[in-house]
Write a structure and sequence with these properties.
There is one protein chain. Helix content is about 55%, strand content about 10%. It is α/β, with parallel strands linked by helices. It folds into two domains: about 5-150, no CATH class; about 150-309, no CATH class. Helix 4 (about 50-65) packs antiparallel against helix 5, helix 4 runs parallel beside helix 6 and helix 5 (about 80-95) runs antiparallel to helix 6. The chain is elongated, with a radius of gyration of 24 Å.
Length: about 300
């Protein structure tokens, strides 16, 4: 299984570190938690807003109830509905939500397919039209705001992630540690140590087993020959004290993990080259991005620095 999938799925992680009995118990706990959330909405709908988790659960119960009742041509859809039920149930157990709707998009598609094939078997034509309008409204209510944020989100990626990519590929093309893959890894021929664990399985294991220490990260960075790091410091529980903070890229953030990217020099032999690269890069930064320079303050000062930027 790819490290990126293992890093984001606690369900798969538990499958690999528990026996069958423990894993089934874990599945039951997750299922019970989902049902508890649905019951909260049914008991007090004004207090708890409906989410995809609730829509998926309602769809599962609807299709499971409909399967043994349909007759005639509609019965041929039973296998399709079973697949939809399994897809939605697995997503409820281990799937993600948010991030501009990218994690649950396939499950929403499965839900729409399942309902679109099931509703004609129980509703007259007018009822079907009303039901389809309801499905369209539900999807629009959640996805229209996401679409409206897309221009701003694209600008965020340009002023932050793309500028990081330019620094890593055009100005300072050396092995780098980071914790948000994307533009930084695209077209980057230098080695990348992913501190989030999506592309570095050793880091994934360290994070998921709670073994993260500055010493373990320092040793791994030295082993891989990492020269510098460009990271969201807010995502890191701790960093090696030897890492030298030389700059912070400050931008606005619509979809990025943080509006501040910390730049650390790990190999002091590259100090002069790093400073020269930062000088050149800073002159090319677009409006909305600003580079603040530092001279290796201790990490204990990070929160004060962050508040001042």
């Amino acid at each position: 299984m790819p490290s990126s999938v293992m890093a984001k799925s606690f369900l798969l992680y538990n499958f690999t570190v528990t026996n069958l009995s423990q894993f089934l118990q874990f599945i039951w706990i997750l299922t019970r938690d989902v049902l508890d959330e649905v019951l909260k909405v049914l008991c007090d709908p004004c207090r708890y807003p409906l989410t995809w988790e609730h829509y998926f659960t309602f769809t599962i119960f609807f299709l499971l109830t409909l399967m043994p009742l349909v007759r005639g041509e509609s019965a041929r859809y039973r296998y399709l509905w079973l697949v939809v039920v399994l897809v939605l149930y697995m997503h409820l157990l281990g799937g993600g939500y948010g991030a501009s709707g990218r994690y649950e998009a396939y499950a929403v598609t499965a839900m729409v397919i399942g309902l679109s094939s099931a509703l004609p078997s129980i509703l007259p034509r007018v009822g079907r039209q009303i039901a389809f309008m309801g499905i369209f409204f539900i999807c629009s209510e959640i996805y229209v705001p996401t679409i409206s944020r897309t221009p701003s989100a694209s600008t965020t990626i340009y002023v932050q992630q793309y500028q990081m990519h330019r620094f890593a590929t055009e100005f300072f093309p050396y092995p780098v540690a980071l914790n948000d893959l994307g533009w930084m890894s695209y077209g980057n021929k230098a080695y990348i140590l992913d501190l989030a664990g999506l592309a570095s399985d050793t880091i994934r294991v360290i994070r998921q087993r709670g073994k993260w220490t500055p010493e373990s990260i320092r040793d791994l960075a030295l082993q891989k020959g990492i020269v510098y790091a460009m990271i969201y410091r807010s995502w890191m529980p701790s960093i090696p004290s030897e890492w030298c903070l030389v700059g912070v890229l400050k931008t606005f953030s619509t979809v990025a993990g943080d509006d501040k990217v910390s730049i650390y020099l790990i190999n002091p032999a590259y100090r002069q080259q790093m400073e020269a690269a930062l000088d050149k890069w800073e002159k090319t930064l677009p409006m909305g991005a600003r580079l603040y320079r530092f001279n290796c303050p201790p990490d204990s000062a990070w929160h004060a620095i962050k508040d001042q930027l």
